[in-house]
Design goal:
single chain, 297 residues, alpha+beta, 7-stranded mixed sheet, 3-stranded mixed sheet, 45% helix, globular
Amino acid sequence: MAHTDHPTMRRVLRREIAGTIGLLTDEHDFRAMRRYRSFTFDDHTTYLKQVEDLLRTRAAQGSHTTIALFDPQEYAEFCEEAGLEPDAPSSRTRFTAELASTGPTIPYDGQSLTDLVPALVDEAVRQATWEYAATLLARLGACASCGEDFGRAAFTRASDLLVRILDTAHPGDRHLVCSITGTPETLVSVLHGDEDEHGAVQLDEAEALEFTTVLALGIATQSPGGLVMRTSAPGTVDRIYGWRLRGDGLEPLTAGEVFDAYCTDVDSGDLISPESDVDYCVPPDLGMEGQAPGHHH
């Protein structure tokens, strides 16, 4: 009969446990946590090095680790609402566990913190943008005449437009940027689509949801804004084109308008040299389906 001693079994089980680390990504947040006596680090650089060493050790042991963005203000609010003592490691552990299911996180795959921190911050911005846009959409309510939910109708419209934009794009990887300026906060959403060997575009579901929500908010509120597409494929020049939001649809930008947008400094208004091997062009026709009327009363 095979026999495994208890310490060995515990080591095996330890590899089955997924872990989450709440990371203080910047110096300001790190200083805010130093007011707690139980938080024993006194140098942010040393703290980051120790975190990176721990991540590498866990990875070498076969353990999976998720990185969450630790916000000291949210932590203090969490402790107050839960009746926890904030100056206690166990409270930080409970907050980190909460972040694992509700907050922005990314898996550790062996990358350095130099690469990991910007990715984590980008994920936090993406999630905050989606939550903000979704909240504004929900507040629009329903049409007094027919009862249709404005937010839901706009989301359906935005989804249709996004499908048409992706389907009519030139072959290659897609990079889309949608910006809305008429809402209380300017919103910018980015969507990447990589083309696989069969010509299908692979999208990140969370990115696609955020992008569609931001576009839907611009449609529903008829806010000033626009959408720009860049396609890239081996052996060809990159193509850049775009649309401005107009009513509940998209109005194509001319090649000159796209060129001006990319080759003019936003702050000074000075001209910027155009990129080489880039074609600033008009967008493909989205077709009649992409121009279907929306909600009108």
